[in-house]
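Lab meeting prep.
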Amino acid sequence: MSKIKQFVKNISPFNSRTDMPVMLYIIKVIIIFWVVKLGSELIGEGVVIGALFACGKNPLQGEMFSPGIMTLIMYYGYAILIGIMILYWKLFQKKTIAELGFTKKVGGYLVGGIIGTFLSVISVILIVFTGAITYNGVFSRIDYTFILLMLGGFICQGAMEEVLCRGIVLQLLKDRTSVPVAVGISTALFTIPHLTSMTGVSVGILIFAIINLILISLVFSFLTLHFRNIWAACGLHSIWNFILYNILGLNLSGNDEKMAAVFDMRSVGSNVLNGGIYGIEASVITAFVLTVALVIMYVIMKRKGGVKDGIQ
């Protein structure tokens, strides 16, 4: 019985114990990921539902705000999840915000945003050249206020995923395992939740969607380890999503509901060039762009002394 109690204590996500075999610790971190993810989502949903009731809406009877307002509520609701994750980090892992990846070097966010802009735009331009995406000009009526609000929402959404995968998971694992193992597990846990949005796509699109999730996750991890914080990963993640969805007006990770965008761009058919309904994140061309980006990043980082493995 004492061994069972010891085992339960070791893998419990509600303590900061690390004195256990590496494999057991890896299992513990995977449990932490799902407990924090599902727990924060459940609490976040509760807060949003409570807020709707406070505003005179009854979501249990289908009473909601307009689709645009509900979209903003959903994206800004990710800020609640971030708060819950940070609270978990401080209370149960007993670590600082800097150890999570939010160091004082906030300038990395701008670097990540620039990289995200370049990678997304160059991917779309190359796909346009193949004819798999058409450019139909600028929309005549552009809701700039909504677009700016969506930028804030994507900042919350991208940061939430990075706090969980490149923050909590990667930072806990890199001190007890090798960097490749830590990055690999972080990448797998980043990829798995996205699989639910891939229903109804062809096998080819499914394969490249998974490949691109792995590649972009590696990019996020490279940036996190090199800059020794998660600012750059947060910037790239959020700006990539914002550019595709609200600037170029393309599908984003299976979401084809258009709210507001600047440019009118549309996929032609459904194939591995444009990623079909999943968007360019399931495109073979995006896979090529991300692969080239990874090679360039590796060369640059190696010349500057290699990938660092810590958080300042």
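Slide two material, second protein:
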Amino acid sequence: MGVRDRLLKLRGSVPEGVELVAVSKFHPLESLREAYDAGQRAFGESRANELCAKAVAMPEDVRWHFIGHLQTNKVRQIMPHVSLIHSIDSERLLRLVDSEAGRLGRKVSVLMQLHVAREETKFGFTPEELLTVMTPDMINGLGNTEIAGVMGMASNVDDERRVREDFRRIRSTFDSLKEGVFRDCPGFSIVSMGMSHDWRIAVEEGAGMIRVGTAIFGEREY
């Protein structure tokens, strides 16, 4: 089964209203073009150099999502191309993105990354940290950045109960922010969670955006 067939099969399973980001990192341009020709427009990359190279080679209406850990020294590189950054994991990074967007005279949308997984190596805010950091002063101080929601990953375990619990914490943190400091912000609307192996559980627990690579493109070619 090729990229087009896998993509169409997946789309048939994803509920209406859930946005699908095709995680294209490490996959060749030919595969991206096949997905594009099948109607896919949102693609997720996790390396600045790769995103920039693909952005100039693909049609202009592609929406590039940066989904990996974003190093501060790579912000300027991706800013002309990216439409949504999923991985804002510190106040410093948020302010730098805002400053770079201002330098380019553009607005950029971002998601705040939550860390709820069991793995220690993951980046992001704990739910408690994020609820503390997101103050009216912080949000109003951003001139060129719209905080559009949250992103998170579940623990990489076979225990479905634990995975559900992680996704619930992500959704619950979003809901607390939406009912609190973002209650008058219609643009705060995205819960990005769920990948090839667990997106169905994520959707059941309230994901509005899923990031799927292997189920569309097959195994990665490193």
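Talking points for slide two:
The first strand starts at residue 19 and ends at 23.
The beta strands are 19-23, 42-45, 63-66, 82-88, 108-115, 145-153, 190-192, 209-212.
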